Amino acid sequence: MGPEKKWIFTLFSGAFITFLIFLSFISGFSSSNYSAFPPHKPAVHHGPGHPPAFAYYISGGRGDVERLFRLLLAVYHPRNRYLLHITAEGSDEERLRLGALVKSMPAVRAFGNVDVIGKPDPNTYMGSTNIAAILRAAAVLLKVDGGWDWFITLSALDYPLITQDDLSHVFSSISRDLNFIDHTSDLGWKEGQRIQPIVVDPGIYLARRTQIFHATEKRQMPDAFTVFTGKSFIQHFVIGSRSFLEFCIFGWDNLPRTLLMYSTNVALPQEVYFHSVICNSPEFKNTTVNADLRYFVWDDPPKMEPHILRESDYEDMVNSGSAFARQFEKEGSVLDMIDKRVLLRGRNRATPGAWCKGRRSWLMDPCSLWGDVNVVKAGPQAKKFGGSIDKILDDRNSQPNTCM
């Protein structure tokens, strides 16, 4: 190589290294929000006169780290509280990786409102370990945060159809003691196939994961209480008020404990427990709203899980007025459509809201800088969601008893 070529090569190499350092600098700037200094944390106000807040329990299994983190970003807001759970089938390395991803968010470091369960719960398909994990999560969220108003369960298969500002804006206009639980006492085929058969979940007492097994005999239906369940093939998601979750955890009468013991030997107890507790409780049965605000599409005949949502389902989904949808493929292209058109969320960035004050650009996450987190601003999707809530509540108010 001649002197002239060596000089050009040296110049090019130096320029290339300088460019890499510059990219590293701006990348660090946009992601860390001046991480060398403690990020500013404005006051978060809860209670009457302020927008409602939500406690999210988000669960997944082995291989769900990226899905859980993406879902967290999609539903994140500094006013809320989040508990993430990778069940026992996942590895400690996955929990550590999820924790590292969570801590990479500047807002999470500032507000400290996201936790990852370090000691996982078992999760036997159709077994009582599922309801045990949900109740444990509710107990943790009640203990660590006194400000949230509603408890929401999500899994790695779910995704929001509205922003958190939309959700908080619409829920600001309703009573904070309402509980959104799809329920019925007309058990139909479920009575003989799910309620009466006696099942045992080995995950309660065995370290290794196994499946439930059935006893040879069935039990009679109880006469001390009425069993309620979801109306669809499988419907167990709830949006429960804080007061109702406190009742389930602390149980100032014996009903929650009685129904928990009964549900322990029921297939899919999470589809029975909350529904039966609330509809057998004189204190809470009139707080029920017979909807879970989820969008599902069932195959015909229905399978154990709803139809996988794809791009062809997008229009019906976003026009449904639902808050969440299930189920999606991992990294499905329809999720990108929801991010781009509904949530206005960039890749690896939180869904922006009124609290985000950063300049929107490819270099900077607008939610790496924040202002007043006690202000919410409704977006276009809030009108559809609000209309759906109004219709659901009108139907509820026209019925003398919602637990039937």
Automatic annotation (TrEMBL):
<keyword id="KW-0808">Transferase</keyword>
<dbReference type="InterPro" id="IPR003406">
    <property type="entry name" value="Glyco_trans_14"/>
</dbReference>
<dbReference type="GO" id="GO:0015020">
    <property type="term" value="F:glucuronosyltransferase activity"/>
</dbReference>
<feature type="transmembrane region" description="Helical">
    <location>
        <begin position="7"/>
        <end position="29"/>
    </location>
</feature>
<keyword id="KW-0328">Glycosyltransferase</keyword>
<keyword id="KW-1133">Transmembrane helix</keyword>
<dbReference type="Pfam" id="PF02485">
    <property type="entry name" value="Branch"/>
</dbReference>
<protein>
    <submittedName>
        <fullName>Uncharacterized protein</fullName>
    </submittedName>
</protein>
<keyword id="KW-0472">Membrane</keyword>
<dbReference type="GO" id="GO:0016020">
    <property type="term" value="C:membrane"/>
</dbReference>
<keyword id="KW-0325">Glycoprotein</keyword>
<dbReference type="InterPro" id="IPR044610">
    <property type="entry name" value="GLCAT14A/B/C"/>
</dbReference>
<keyword id="KW-0812">Transmembrane</keyword>
